[in-house]
Design goal:
- Two copies of one chain form a homodimer.
- The first copy, chain A, is built from 15 helices and twelve strands.
- The first copy, chain A, has a seven-stranded parallel sheet, sandwiched between helices. A five-stranded mixed sheet of chain A has the order 11-10-8-9-12, covered by helices on one side.
- Chain A is α/β, with parallel strands linked by helices.
- Chain A folds into two domains: 6-145, NAD(P)-binding Rossmann-like Domain (Rossmann fold), CATH 3.40.50.720; 150-261 and 284-389, RNA polymerase sigma factor, region 2, helix turn helix motif (Rna Polymerase Sigma Factor, Chain: A).
- The longest helix of chain A is centred in the C-terminal third of the chain and has 27 residues, at 363-389.
- The first copy, chain A, has helices at residues 16-27, 43-53, 66-73, 82-87, 104-112, 122-138, 148-157, 190-193, 203-211, 213-225, 264-272, 304-315, 319-335, 343-353, 363-389; strands spanning 6-11, 32-38, 57-59, 78-79, 93-96, 116-119, 143-145, 165-172, 233-237, 243-249, 254-258, 296-297.
- In chain A, strand 1 (6-11), helix 1 (16-27) and strand 2 form a beta-alpha-beta unit.
- The first copy, chain A, is globular.
- At the A-B interface, helix 7, strand 10, strand 11, helix 11 and strand 12 of A face helix 7, strand 10, strand 11, helix 11 and strand 12 of B.
- Strand 11 (254-258) of chain A pairs antiparallel with strand 11 (254-258) of chain B, so a sheet runs across the interface.
């Protein structure tokens, strides 16, 4: 019996995760059919992707360029919004690989329509984890992790009872500045921050890795993906990025998932679940050739963003949405050269400190808080700019 | 709803694994009832165990000491052979922790009677894996591993499809002489060989760890436990004994199970399956406190016993039974000071070389081959004795 290829939509197809998802699909011929592609500003790449995968539906950020795109994809290709894409009946799996708050509404639509969502967009669960998990329950839909850390935990939990989990242990490489003295962090440049020691990822997430804000987001995501209280989620420094994360069980047994740092493996897991498809897309791990594996506790003094994130996660409600919005603004300003690396935590901290907080916000409240936090963070960043210039 | 305690028989209760199994049961009160204890020569300990656990059935190696034992256990305790124990209806799980060929018939009985067998006796599967797995099928019985390596693999396979396994990777500490120059191995003493760098185990298995024969046995056991061809089973040196073994899947993902080197965890897993029982008996792992984890390929030149075992496993039939019998004789002679450490491999090699081999032996043929191999190995050891004395 030959299985019907699974229908896939990729939101954010021109980004790092989107491109790697298409590579996985390319290397597993006959298993998937790309029904929809939604990209951002990189029209040339989106046109190339449309020419190769012939999607039925396309979307890109400016509508007037859409005509070229449809010409590239072929005559039967239609224009559709991300939410129309997510409701389309031909689609079994939505890869949510846009970044920022823009992914939230499409993901909610996909879940309510009962699609499996392979979730690479961190902000979706960070901003509105309680709303997203409720939508998944309503639609009887699966949320599948794409982050290597959550994929590792997910794989370690297959065949296990969630009630017997003692701790989830997220590993962190420590980012670009793990060996830079804390006193020197104010002077590091965006260019330096973009040199990740082990992973090749998008720009925003690479900066977030240097501050460990990324790991804080992941702790909040893990809280929702695995229905686990924040105090059972820990972060462990692991410089080599080989052990992608671990689970400790009630009997003391610890399981881990390992692999070369290559996002195509967790993407493949999320697309192929509940199967493991033969044919490794990512390079195979050779432990005897790899260097020794090291593990260290995290120094929260070095990583104030992680501390802020863990606190916001524990408070819940609208706090994580404020965290994510303020971080997005602060990272943009750092990459533009307007504020210093160490100002990222300051902007986030000041924004969180000014926030009142709502315990169980509805979606509109989350979106309102997101706007409010961006404004406040922008003002806070502007206040810090003269200091950055004077360094 | 309170669950009925599971009825347990422990064969080899006074040995290292037997004592640790009783410790697990002691620390999980109300979950298990010790129905039967079978011990060897350590009558004092067996009497203490009988006094504490009040088994219904007891057995020990000399019958005439049995009267004291029953006095210790209490008036309702009866005397029974190991095979009678294994057929008893009150018993759900048999912990097979005797060593050597003596465990074979009781294990076959237990499996044919549909009991779960927690298997710590290596020789059972090494000698007669095809007969044992067939008995498990007949009795619809479960074979559960107790070795830390097989337990690790087993745990990594929960919720996975065996058809998607690419490789089983057994880790090996390298034993007592991993850093001793090969040229000096002829002069090492039994006392030195019994100092295992990471595990506290019985004497025979500690010597077998120093030669890596133990890892060869484990590869053959893994072949039967997980129905995996020998060429998909690999051995990796891992000095710290924290990663107990790994599984690589068809998609390139690798899963591992980790823990402090303490046999009580795999014993607990085998007893509590398919649950994980809350309350860790073994100490919890702290990776940040542990030293770095290292992995190396094995040098088969340093470990000729491993090479012999992998070859015997690949040939199958009666070859592994010959391997196990010859090794048992050789290790006894080494511990008695009669032959040198490096003679263990010579005795085993000479015995295997003299063997004709049968492809699919019945049990009597296996037992006959076992006797033959012991005789031949004894003669071979005797031939080497003068050389050992002359050193």
């Amino acid at each position: 019996m030959t299985e019907q290829p699974r229908g896939v939509a990729i939101l954010g197809s021109t980004g790092s995760i989107g491109r790697q998802a298409l590579d996985v699909i390319r290397r597993l011929p006959g298993r998937f059919r790309v029904i929809a592609l939604a990209g951002g500003n990189n029209h040339t790449l989106l046109e190339d992707q449309a020419r190769e995968f012939h999607p039925d539906l396309v979307w890109c950020q400016d509508g007037d360029r859409g005509m070229n795109l449809r010409a590239a994809a072929g005559p039967r290709t239609a224009w559709a919004t991300m939410e129309e894409i997510c409701a389309d009946q031909r689609i079994d799996i939505v890869v949510a690989a846009t970044s920022g708050a823009a992914g939230l509404l499409p993901v909610l639509t996909a879940l309510r329509c009962g699609k499996a969502v392979a979730l690479a967009n961190k902000e979706v669960l960070v901003m509105a984890g309680h709303i997203v998990t409720r939508a998944a329950e309503q639609g009887r839909a699966e949320l599948r992790p794409v982050d290597s850390e959550h994929s590792a935990i997910w794989q370690c939990l297959w065949g296990e009872d969630l009630a017997t989990v003692e701790r989830l242990i997220l590993t962190a490489s420590g980012g670009a500045f793990r060996d830079v003295p804390v006193a020197d962090l104010a002077a590091v440049t965006p260019r330096e921050a973009l040199r990740h020691p082990t992973w090749d990822m998008g720009r925003k997430v690479t900066i977030d890795s240097a501050t460990l804000m990324n790991k804080g987001f992941e702790a909040i995501e893990a809280r929702w993906l695995f229905n686990m209280p924040m105090d059972r989620i820990e972060v462990l420094l692991h410089r080599e990025s080989i052990v992608h994360s671990l689970v400790e069980f009630a009997d003391g047994s610890v399981k881990a998932q390992l692999g070369e740092p290559d996002m195509r493996l967790p993407i493949q897991c999320a697309l192929s679940y509940p199967e493991r498809m033969t044919g490794a897309v990512a390079p195979r791990l050779n432990l005897a050739r790899s260097k020794a594996l090291h593990f260290e506790d995290v120094d929260l003094g070095r990583y104030p963003c992680l501390r802020l994130a863990l606190e916001a996660g524990a408070r819940g409600g609208t706090w994580p949405a404020v965290l994510a919005a303020a971080d997005e603004v602060a990272v943009e300003r750092f990459m533009a050269g307007s504020i210093r690396f160490t100002d990222i935590a300051k902007v986030v901290d000041a924004t969180l400190s000014a926030h009142g907080g709502t315990a169980d916000p509805v979606l509109d409240e989350v979106l309102e808080v997101d706007r409010w936090a961006r404004e406040l963070a922008s003002a806070e960043a502007a206040r810090l700019e003269p200091l950055a210039r004077s360094r």
